[in-house]
Amino acid sequence: MTSKMVQEPRILIVDDEQANIDLLVSCLEDDGFTNLSATARPAEVAGLFDEFHPDLILLDLHMPIVDGFGVLKQVRGRQDPDEYLPILVLTADVTAATKQRALSSGATDFITKPLDLIEVVLRIRNLLETRNLHQEHRAARQLAERASQRATLLADASKLLGSSFDYHTTLSVLCKTFVPAVADFCVVDVVEDDGSIMRVGSAHVDPMKIPLLGDLPFARPEAEPLHNPVLRALERCEATLVPELTDALLVIMLADEDYRYVQEHLKPCSLLVVPIEGPGKVHGALTLVHADSGRSFDQEDLELARELARRAGITIENAQLFDQAQQATRARDELLAVVAHDLRNPLSTVMMGSTMLHDGAGSDQQRRHADMVSKAAGRMQRLIEDLLEANRSARGKLNIEPIPERVDIFVKEAVANLSPLASARGIDLTGEVIGELPQVLMDSSRIMQVLSNLVGNALKFTPECGRVAIRCEEVEEGVRFAVSDTGPGIPADQIPYIFGQFWQASDNDTRGVGLGLSIVRGIIDNHQGRVWVDSVLGQGATFYFTLPLARSGEEAEKGLQDPALSPALG
To answer: Is residue 421 pLDDT above 80, yes or no?
Structure first.
């Protein structure tokens, strides 16, 4: 596919014979080339090159003072190494040695004198076409590199922004990732809870100038918002893109003393400011500035800055939500501690009083009443303990001390402890261990609590003469425990929620406050296990949980010696 020719290509002619220059100029103008420059003094080429920026050079080799080889050296030393600049040599010297020397010095092609003007024009068009192709390829490569760099920058920024809830520190570090990839220097201002503006981050390509950014006056609150890009971002949620920051604009933006400060110390030449937004709120402003590099911001830079600011806004929102959650958690913990303390003391008095009433009762009715009070007080005490336990579980504060234990012995003990409760309800409780199971890592008192909760829950919903079974077998994850019943089952739409706090089978279920399964999940999570449930309506439910295997032999001994190899069990 033929690429589009350079619009009005710039052609520089260098020849010590003015007649040759006139001939070439006339020929090229006749063929539509109008953007021409020529010199018969080779010593002027360096200056013309810097001023004219030619797309192609026509060069004579044999010239006085500075010959064509000298010109080639000057030109190739001044051009961008990544740029394709064709140089067409016009010479009567067609010896192999001359051609070789010219090519090694940077010549692109040759035409021998006397000149065939048709051939000259064709060569010129071919070389300009080749330059076009090179420029298109270069632009595409640069575009791809820029896109890759910006994708990497966004990925790095996202990783950094998600690394901490301390957004002041995070934004400060983020500034350093923008310099010099995006800007020569950068500052981030945030709006504090009291409405004040605080600079939380700054970075400069020159580390010696970083302290100067603390006084960068673009965010002075006494400035006029209309003329102040940072205040416009903070108060109006408007972005500002100034590709060329002129003295006239700086004078409008800044007071006299601020203008002198900025011009003396920072010398900005291009400015980009975007608001850091949250839902219905502006959290701060990101200011990017080009200075010594002479670069200029464009629309693409604006879109990148908007995306970076959007992600920074999410970070601030998450940090604030986390702080609110922390405050709510602390308030909840304080409330639970007060409630537990204030309830335990009078509850103890009630339980002691009910015992005394039972022992001193003069009739069976009085003893029954005393027993009712004692049982109610016992339920209240268990409720208090469940609330505290659920709170510790939610905060990951459960006291778990796992050690290697035999599964068969543990299951036998659990069935023995829970069988009286099952028998009282007319339900058959069985335990089965499949195969010879390896030891597992567990806190036996905590796992007994798990089984007590699961079996107790199964007994609540299993009708008289039903069955509840505990079953254990080895699986890929370790050892899997299963507690199954022949109750009514659990509706599929309720299964995702049953391990949440205060879940109950129905609104009419008054047999608890729904903390048991939440505590179960907390205990198993702290054992690095997994808990779930399967159920079919009308056929009962099965609760599963897994426990990791205990290591043995040399591996266990090594784990005791090396804390890095010890299981993280909470």
So the answer is: yes
